[in-house]
Amino acid sequence: MELKERIQQVIADEPVTLFMKGTPQMIMCGNSLRALEALRQAGAPVTTVDILPDPAIRQELSAVSGWPTIPQVFIRGELIGGADITEELAESGELEQKLADALGLDYRNGRAEKTVELA
Amino acid sequence: MERLESLLRAAFPDARELAVTDRTGTGDHFQVVVASPLFAGLSLVDQHRLVYDALAEPLADGTIHELRIKTKGSE
Fold first, then answer.
1. Does the distance separating the beta carbons of B45 and A80 come in below 8 Å?
2. Contact assignment for A85 to B49 by CB distance below 8 Å
């Protein structure tokens, strides 16, 4: 499968996807950390994708999403935004609302964090 | 910083508030705050897209290494 299709598939299939620099075990960017912490605070079942192993991931991702920067957060296929928006929505409580709307009220009881490798 | 500010001024001529801060003093990590009537009715994603569009050039040429955005619509 083409890289672009694999990116689209992850975005569509995973409940919550965070494209980030690094992994939760080794975060390579402060903004990726901010987005991850905001998602954790809201109890989101996060799937992380490291964009650093291959520059093509970032290029294809931005082509798919129309969003120029990393991190990028998606809930059930919908672009939520980068670190600033994710933080802002977490603080206002809207992130939890979006998660409950998209994934059901018991979304916090979903599975643990997960990592998908594209490269 | 002046370049970013003039690009934003051009894109948001009616901005009630417009600020660019060099967050780290290194000329590549910026915080921008824009309050504009153009944001009214738009989602945060679309509001930030307008800011990215305005700053497409410095984002593409590497002037901006990191950008934090705070947008405000109608109060």
1. yes
2. no
Q: Nearest C-alpha of chain B: how many angstroms from A113?
A: 25
Q: Which of A68, A79, A82 sits opposite B59 (nearest CB)?
A: A68
The three-state (H, E, C) secondary structure of chain B, written as one string = CHHHHHHHHHHCCCCCEEEEEECCCCCCEEEEEEECHHHCCCCHHHHHHHHHHHCHHHHHCCCCCEEEEEEECCC
pTM: 0.94
CATH classification at residue A47: 3.40.30.10
Which pLDDT value is given to residue A25? 95
Give dist(CA A72, CA A81) in Å, integer.
6
Structural domain harbouring B39: 2-72
What ipTM was estimated for this complex?
0.90
Is the CB of A68 less than 8 angstroms away from the CB of B56?
Answer: yes
Whether A89 sits inside 8 A of B44 (CB atoms) is yes
Which chain A positions have a beta carbon within 8 Å of B49's beta carbon? 66-67
In tens digits, what is the pLDDT along chain A, a chain of 119 residues? Answer: 899 999 999 999 999 999 999 999 999 999 999 999 999 999 999 999 999 999 999 999 999 999 999 999 999 999 999 999 999 999 999 999 999 999 999 999 877 899 999 98
Residue B75 predicted with pLDDT over 60: no
Q: Tell me, what CATH number does B68's domain have?
A: 3.30.300.90
